[in-house]
Design brief:
Elements: E1 2-8, E2 11-13, E3 15-16, E4 21-23, E5 31-34, E6 37-40, E7 44-51, E8 56-61, E9 70-77, E10 84-93, E11 98-101, E12 106-109, E13 117-127, E14 131-136, E15 143-148, E16 153-157, E17 175-177, E18 187-189, E19 196-200, E20 206-210, E21 218-220, E22 224-226, E23 233-238, E24 245-250, E25 254-259, E26 270-273, E27 279-284, E28 291-296, E29 301-305, E30 314-316, E31 323-328, E32 335-340, E33 345-349, E34 365-369, E35 376-381, E36 388-393, E37 397-403, H1 410-420, E38 429-433, E39 436-443
Parallel strand pairs: 3-13, 17-21, 34-38
Antiparallel strand pairs: 1-39, 2-4, 5-6, 7-37, 8-9, 9-10, 10-13, 11-12, 14-15, 15-16, 16-17, 18-19, 19-20, 20-22, 23-24, 24-25, 25-26, 27-28, 28-29, 29-30, 31-32, 32-33, 33-34, 35-36, 36-37, 38-39
């Protein structure tokens, strides 16, 4: 085995609330001769690392965008025995420099040291208990729902909250949804019907809420309760094309497909024992009416077809820890990402689905981000900028990253698969630690 290793020290100070560092590198043009083939090595176009002041297990991009590459990101904290908060972070990505390779050297082509990103807290919402999950309303994007550790669901209008926490701030949700007997994580707005919200709980139930109302500071009870799981319900998701259909997964290993037009609250329309251990997450494909994905404590991601739930279409075996979240990319029906207790975020292209490759990794695996040092709890694709992902880990570290789209081209993927994949890693994996970015490609002679 021979190794080509190149380190890039690419630090830039980040303005804003956290006054931390952004790390960004671009090695699109770094070329190396491998097996007499000139190969363009894929990597990040953007990598920004922030150590947040408080730990969090949930993250979601807000959908709006302007011409200045400015985005907003939702984050909720999980402090114990302290007041928590939901933050709306405003992030402005600046134009980033490029690395250009000559035959003998790698040259950093920039004459200034401008910051690569600006981040600050645009809104701070006081939250009296831990925030297990947050989701914005697709019909009213300023409305945010939170799944709280006290078992309640809270609704906020972030336009009514300040940018910084003050000494006289109060916990003032628009709506308090009561009825769950235990806390939960699952939370999903119906994309077709305004104001319809689902939540899932460790009490084995799924709750449906109707929050359309002109009254503020009210308390609501669920409109329906679905109960068929025999253990805690970990996640839920609405179908992308049918307003009455949703799915649920739980600690009983089951995947249930529900049709709420059915008056039976304890009988799903379809069901399958999806995994031998807890099923932690589920996601409907936004482009296909039949496909969905599940992630499990058995360390696998499974792809399912609603037309035949007797067996999965594909099982992805690349994680070495429990899978915490799966999310389909908003720009492609084939691309899906998963994050895990093994500290990685994997990106798959399901159009590459075949048998296992020679290195015993899934042929669908096109990228494995291994920059987090602790388990990755949540990830979210940016709907406006392709390939831009936010991921957050147990140690309160937020990564904003984007891989080079040329990496997705079939030619480069084929070259990587043929020449650059050792038996222990997938086609390409990143290693990013604090102030140093290390790119390591191994090649068998």
């Amino acid at each position: 085995m021979s190794a080509i290793s190149q380190e890039y020290d690419c630090t830039g100070e980040v303005a804003g609330l956290y006054n931390l560092y952004a790390y960004l590198y671009n090695v699109r043009n770094y070329k190396s001769v491998i097996a007499s083939t000139l190969l363009t090595l894929p990597a990040f176009l953007i990598f920004i690392c922030h150590e947040l002041p408080d730990p969090s297990i949930c993250v979601q991009w807000l959908p709006e965008m302007n011409d200045e590459r400015t985005y907003r990101l939702l984050i909720g904290t999980i402090l114990e025995n302290e007041e928590n908060a939901i933050y709306v972070l405003k992030i402005k990505l600046r134009d980033y420099p490029e690395y250009v390779s000559n035959e003998d050297e790698l040259q950093f082509q920039t004459e200034n040291e401008e910051m690569y990103a600006e981040m600050h807290s645009q809104v701070t919402i006081l939250h009296k208990s831990q925030v297990n999950r947050i989701r914005y309303c697709p019909h009213r994007q300023f409305i945010i729902a939170s799944q709280a550790s006290d078992g309640n669901i809270y609704l906020f209008d972030y336009r009514n909250h300040p940018s910084k926490r003050g000494p006289f701030d109060k916990f003032e949700p628009l709506v308090i949804m009561e009825g769950q007997k235990q806390e939960g994580i699952g939370l999903a707005w119906n994309p077709h019907k305004e104001g319809v919200l689902l939540s899932s709980s460790r009490d084995c139930c799924i709750y449906e809420w109707n929050v359309i109302s002109d009254k503020d500071h009210q308390t609501l009870n669920p409109t329906r309760i679905f109960s068929s799981h025999s253990a805690g319900v970990e996640d839920i998701d609405w179908h992308a094309f049918t307003s009455a259909v949703f799915c649920s997964v739980g600690c009983d290993g089951n995947l249930f497909i529900w049709d709420n037009r059915n008056s039976e609250n304890s009988r799903p329309a379809l069901s399958v024992c999806a995994h031998k251990q807890d099923v932690n997450c589920v996601s409907f494909n936004p482009f296909s009416e039949y496909l969905l994905a599940t992630g499990s404590s058995d360390k696998t991601v499974a792809i399912w077809d609603l037309r035949n739930l007797k067996e999965s279409l594909s099982i992805l075996l690349d994680h070495t820890g429990e899978v915490n979240e799966v999310r389909w990319a908003p720009q492609s029906e084939f691309i899906i990402a998963s994050c895990s207790e093994d500290c990685t975020v994997n990106i798959y292209d399901m159009s590459h689905s075949t048998s296992l490759s020679e290195n015993n990794c899934s042929p669908e695996l096109i990228f494995s981000h291994r920059g987090h040092r602790n388990p990755v709890q949540s990830l979210c694709w940016n709907a406006n900028e392709p390939w831009l992902i936010a991921s957050i880990s147990n140690d309160a570290v937020l990564h904003l990253w984007k891989i080079d789209e040329s990496f997705y081209h079939n030619d480069s993927s084929q070259l990587l698969n043929e020449y650059c994949v050792p038996s222990t890693i997938a086609k390409f994996q990143s290693s990013v630690y604090a102030t140093k970015v290390s790119l390591l490609i191994n090649n068998e002679n």
